[in-house]
């Protein structure tokens, strides 16, 4: 997760966030989003629609924000709220965003305070849709979403899961914590930083498992934090993101399609399938280099004489090298990771450069993991090596900041 410290507003005051709430059953989840903004030092003005107030009343919004609720254009007319709220905002987040509100925003309609605010805002705008699957998939909604994205708004892809009643499908509001993380990144980078709009990127994360028997496996210490940060930051920059997660228990990043795998073989199949239509592929996962030649169907028991069973291993496929070799899309950018410790054969960077040449990828992100550094930590320090000989050092920073440094390098190659 990124830091929750608020970025300074251009005015020098606390960052001013407008939280628009439209009339969907998920309106109650916006209370948690509001709390995250206020507790991290943001000045939040809640602008609910009339239908949103049918789900969550104005006293709740006022109590959580510490400010009166701006609900209509007729209250405090002398302050011209339908213009001032949007003009003064550093960020506008609409969560949940119904099909109706997005349609009005796409077509420039302004029949209430929220839609007036959206017309006057010149800051980054984030929509977090929530609706039934059929509404999300309707051509009119898809066209409206495309229009909003073309104009620079971030429209987060809804999550899949339980909807109203017994329905299940795509259209669920992403978790408030993940909306918050995306919104912070959008606000920090500004309205002009959506350089991955229209791009499809594939990211892997976590560590694979190779089973010895039904309960034991060979694995590694990868937490998936860096891969998830890469997926989250790509979504905040406007990309369509597929995240292939190997044994990761983190919450799904907002607006990201998550494919879950366990073994290296499953990771390989999922990555090759997703990479076919991708503009960029980032192998941040840590696949197991070896797997047992055979797997016991029953739990391996301890021997009475104290002897240990022999485990015979074979090498797993090299997924990164295969992705680099068999690119099925022109100008596809492939990024690998190298967790190195250095040894008698070379330093961390020397081993990284050799790996870059061996794997055939465009960029290699090198971690020094001596002493178990990086694994499970909130921050990271890397060197990004490129095939043209450039080495970009990223000093220790949050994994979110490291992710943006990596995407900066990828975005440069899209226009080369």
UniProtKB/TrEMBL annotation:
Q: Where is the DNA/pantothenate metabolism flavoprotein C-terminal domain?
A: 196-412
Q: What is the protein's given name? A: Coenzyme A biosynthesis bifunctional protein CoaBC
Query: What keywords is this UniProt entry annotated with?
Result: Decarboxylase, Flavoprotein, FMN, Ligase, Lyase, Magnesium, Metal-binding, Multifunctional enzyme
Please give the organism.
Answer: Nocardioides daphniae
Looking at the record, which segments are called Phosphopantothenoylcysteine decarboxylase? Answer: 1-200
Residues annotated as domain Flavoprotein: 16-186
Q: What is the cofactor note?
A: Binds 1 FMN per subunit.
Which reaction equation describes what this protein catalyses?
N-[(R)-4-phosphopantothenoyl]-L-cysteine + H(+) = (R)-4'-phosphopantetheine + CO2; (R)-4'-phosphopantothenate + L-cysteine + CTP = N-[(R)-4-phosphopantothenoyl]-L-cysteine + CMP + diphosphate + H(+)
């Amino acid at each position: 997760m990124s830091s929750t410290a608020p970025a300074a507003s251009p005015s020098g005051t606390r960052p001013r966030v407008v939280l628009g709430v439209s009339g969907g059953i998920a309106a109650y989840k916006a209370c948690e989003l509001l709390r995250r903004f206020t507790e991290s030092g943001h000045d939040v003005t809640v602008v609910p629609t009339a239908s949103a107030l049918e789900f969550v009343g104005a006293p709740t919004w006022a109590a959580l924000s510490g400010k009166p609720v701006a609900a209509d254009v007729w209250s405090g007319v002398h302050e011209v709220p339908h213009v001032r709220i949007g003009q003064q905002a550093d960020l506008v987040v609409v969560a949940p965003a119904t099909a109706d509100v997005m349609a009005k925003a796409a077509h420039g309609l302004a029949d209430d305070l929220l839609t007036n605010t959206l017309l006057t805002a010149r800051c980054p705008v984030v929509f977090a849709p929530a609706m039934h699957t059929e509404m999300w998939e309707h051509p009119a909604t898809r066209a409206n979403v495309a229009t909003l994205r073309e104009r620079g708004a971030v429209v987060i892809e809804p999550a899949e899961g339980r909807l109203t009643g017994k329905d299940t499908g795509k259209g669920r509001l992403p978790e408030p914590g993940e909306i918050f993380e995306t919104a912070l990144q959008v606000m920090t980078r500004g309205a002009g930083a959506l350089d991955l709009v229209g791009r499809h990127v594939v990211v892997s994360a976590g560590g694979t498992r190779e089973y010895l028997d039904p309960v034991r496996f060979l694995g590694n210490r990868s937490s998936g934090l860096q891969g998830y940060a890469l997926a989250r930051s790509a979504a905040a920059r406007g990309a369509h993101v597929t995240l292939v997660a190997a044994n990761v228990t983190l919450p799904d990043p907002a607006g990201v399609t998550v494919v879950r795998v366990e073994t290296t073989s499953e990771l390989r199949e999922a990555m090759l399938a997703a990479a076919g239509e991708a503009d960029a592929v980032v192998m941040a996962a840590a696949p197991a280099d070896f797997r047992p030649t055979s797997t016991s169907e029953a739990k391996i028991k301890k021997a009475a004489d104290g002897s240990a069973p022999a485990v015979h291993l074979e090498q797993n496929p090299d997924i990164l090298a295969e992705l680099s070799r068999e690119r099925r899309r022109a100008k596809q950018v492939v990024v690998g990771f190298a967790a190195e410790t250095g040894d008698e054969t070379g330093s961390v960077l020397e081993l990284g450069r050799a790996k870059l040449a061996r794997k055939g990828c465009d960029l290699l992100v090198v971690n020094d993991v001596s002493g178990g550094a990086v694994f499970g930590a909130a921050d990271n320090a890397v060197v990004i090596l490129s095939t043209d000989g450039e080495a970009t050092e990223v000093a220790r920073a949050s994994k979110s900041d490291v992710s943006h440094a990596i995407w900066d390098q990828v975005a440069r190659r899209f226009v080369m």
